[in-house]
Amino acid sequence: MSLDDKATKPHDRLAQALADDMAAMNDLIHERMKSEHAPRIPEITAHLVEAGGKRLRPMLTLASAHLCGYTGPYHIHLAATVEFIHTATLLHDDVVDESQQRRGRPTANLLWDNKSSVLVGDYLLARGFQLMTAPGSMRVINILADASAVIAEGEVLQLTAAQDLATGEDTYLQVIRGKTAALFSAATEVGAVLAGAPETQVRAMFDYGDALGIAFQMADDLLDYGGSSAAIGKNTGDDFRERKLTLPVIRAVAAADATERAFWSRVIEQGDQREGDLDHALELMHRHGALESTRKTALDWGAKARASLDIMPAGELRDMLADLADYVVARLK
Amino acid sequence: MSLDDKATKPHDRLAQALADDMAAMNDLIHERMKSEHAPRIPEITAHLVEAGGKRLRPMLTLASAHLCGYTGPYHIHLAATVEFIHTATLLHDDVVDESQQRRGRPTANLLWDNKSSVLVGDYLLARGFQLMTAPGSMRVINILADASAVIAEGEVLQLTAAQDLATGEDTYLQVIRGKTAALFSAATEVGAVLAGAPETQVRAMFDYGDALGIAFQMADDLLDYGGSSAAIGKNTGDDFRERKLTLPVIRAVAAADATERAFWSRVIEQGDQREGDLDHALELMHRHGALESTRKTALDWGAKARASLDIMPAGELRDMLADLADYVVARLK
Known about the structure:
Two copies of one chain form a homodimer. Chain A is built from 18 helices and two strands. The first copy, chain A, has helices at residues 3-8, 10-17, 19-32, 40-49, 56-67, 75-97, 108-111, 114-131, 138-161, 169-194, 199-226, 229-232, 238-241, 247-254, 258-269, 277-287, 290-308, 316-330, and strands at residues 101-102, 105-106. Chain A has one domain (3-330): Orthogonal Bundle (Farnesyl Diphosphate Synthase), CATH 1.10.600.10. Chains A, B: One of its GO terms (molecular function) is all-trans-octaprenyl-diphosphate synthase activity. Chains A, B: Its cofactor is Mg(2+).
């Protein structure tokens, strides 16, 4: 990939525009991930933090604060909070999913152990909570504490909804709103609240983050069946093997005849997966247009995210955020 | 045990004196442990919450607030926060320790699975953070967020210090201060801060909780080698099997000759444990007075806790807290 290519990606353009803030946030993260007493904490955190994540969520907080005219110093703290909460959930997710790879590297639970991932995740979550008190805003604290509860609730819901063919689109939306969109919407909302933006703008930034997060997760779920491994950093078919009820499966199941239903019941509910089953699942999804319709729904959410920004002050920052909404679903082309 | 016996225990007397508050807190906990979307959350939480824990930590918050003259409603919220943080750490601890029993019942990780324990723990932690915003006090939030970070740090430190014979008493004190005393001291400190008590009283209540927590954990660690299974609700020798460097072991190792050192190295560092090893370990501890000296140190911390209360307003509540400090180590007689 050439530098020119890179610069056309909205999140790279955002990172360039917010370069000073991003550097300050990275410094703060490095400072706060230290532990005087337990050196394993920074070891594990560094493994994740320095693996080259996109820092998409904290960038949203920084961008939202600027877009709403904030000129103080505390958006850095809130962005770091958002990244700490995100990193904590990654550590715990990898334990829950028994993952082996994250961001193209072996996961912490594989390199160290599940115990360390659980406890270091707890530590980072608490570090995030410490940082969010910096602006002294009770509302900001409420938003981020609420988001943390909704994230965990979404993850538990996913756990119980997995392997259950009766899972519908409403439940799926609840799951991804919880496990993914809640942190996106909290990230954008706190930026606006911190800036003291009018309630209509706070609501618009929340809606943007919510729709962006939903579009982002839907795209991820679709790429797990259709994208290349390189593009998403994890192996195609992971969700199938983990018997997760994501939108492509839910829609294929909804359109299934008796024979197809028996297939889904065997591979998802009973977990009896054999060679060729993933290919057959893909064939069924294509037959019923489940992948195409999922892509369409994800694009709709991307468009909704973009439209939420209409009432925000026009300018380069708003354009970049709008382009980001297109970009997260453009991966699906 | 007769009712009269029961009423002589300081935590039962405290529970009686604070009965209305405790009932209000239990109601709040039950209300907040619900999840509209993920029924597994209240299932697991109820399993733990209703297993008859002593509610010692939240009781400390309630007592501290009253002792400092608080008359408002928010000590209930903070007590519930403390209990949620505690319950979250129990869920995660059982995953980390691969425990099978907790409070005399099978653990959640055994009844459900590790995944649920990790995620429901995260949920309860976030629920606790939501509740702590109720009084609108940034200082209270800081204290509880700090405590959460210190708890996780202590747990990680214990993980890395385990199986390492070089672990000294300083590290041991750091571990138990983190994993146990930090929540005790935060529980008592926030009660005083909420009440707007003078700084000397805030400090005294912090010192009381800190020393009480240390005495409590030291007693637990000693009982793991000497107490009956019934008295502490877990099996004797758990720490030995988990190769944890608790004070009795640290002191026995410090006094060990070459042969004894080889024994400790085999069972703790190499984890090669055979039949009779626990008995031999106990014999070595007795030989060097490690159990007796641990008991003495625990009693010293209990006395320190009691003495911290000297500057607090005299009365029944202070007496009960002082008696509690004696009681947590009186288990050792």
